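Reviewer 2 asked us to include a model.

Predict the structure of this chain.
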Amino acid sequence: MKAPLFSGGLSMLISLLGTPLFIRFLVRRQYGQFIRQDGPTAHFTKRGTPTMGGVVIILASILGWAAGLLLTGTRPTVSAGLVLFLMAGLGVVGFLDDFIKISRQRSLGLSPLAKIIGQGLVGIAFAAAALHFPNSHGLTPASTHISFIRDTRVDLAFGGAAVGLVLFVIWANFLITAWSNSVNLTDGLDGLATGASIFVLGAYVMVGVWQNNQTCQHLATLGPRCYETRDPLAMAAVAAAVTGALFGFLWWNASPAQIFMGDTGSLALGGALAGISILTRTEILAAIIGGIFVLEVLSDVIQIGFFKLTRRRVFRMAPLHHHFELSGWGEVTIVIRFWIVAGLFVMIGVGIFYAEWVTG
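Predicted model (structure tokens):
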């Protein structure tokens, strides 16, 4: 139980102390953010702010997690390795996107097709591996069942193992793409995506610890309402490491931001959230816990769809935080209020998670 505490604390320290070093490196290289011309004019002052801060978040998460295991004598697990692989892999895709924007001084990086291919390659590797590596109890990191708070009766392997593998890879990649892009859309104001991610991933520390205390691997003492997850405490440790890294990064990312996480960070965080939700068997519950991200992506979908149908707009600008910005709200006000909404979604999601166990 000490591993999540050590992992979170150490990753926060690494991120807090390492971010200013990375800022100085980026400034020397003149790797600054390029601001889109059709966005809010107040953002023009942010041009040149160092970006790609996601590199620090990823490295701090991995180093903090590894150091936490080393200090507590805990063995690494396949589940943790898979989530960190997914996080780092999507981070590489985001890094390439950021680097192209900086080197070519434009607001567009990788082409949409190239980004989808990159996300797909990482996601397919993660999904295929997640259905292998059973432990001594026969549990693999993921299952072919669609999950809410635990696995439901909807099994993608209804047509056999091969069909199940293909359908699971498609389902997992849908979740990975959806979460990585939703966090990416939310990352539009100083500290917004960072703070919201702290709430969401912090909730998964509690989920992982609770599942570990009620694991089906000790079925004889816990009864039928246990959780069929392979490495719940490992998921708590990874979530704690990422949360800690975000806490340290937020010190430098809060308004006025001295560094942005960029696509490097937003895609990586979306991948971490997707991976943890899949391996904790809470795929649908994650949409409630991470409801703030869902709202942001829905606002974008509504805006695009309504405009194509009617040539009119629902919002002043999408995603949603830009609508309020153009309505006259201050940036800090929007960020704090969105954090409050993120916290409310987390409380609802965690409340549903706990209530299901109690009523069951």
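The longest helix spans residues 331-359. The chain has a mean pLDDT of 91. We have added this to the supplementary material.
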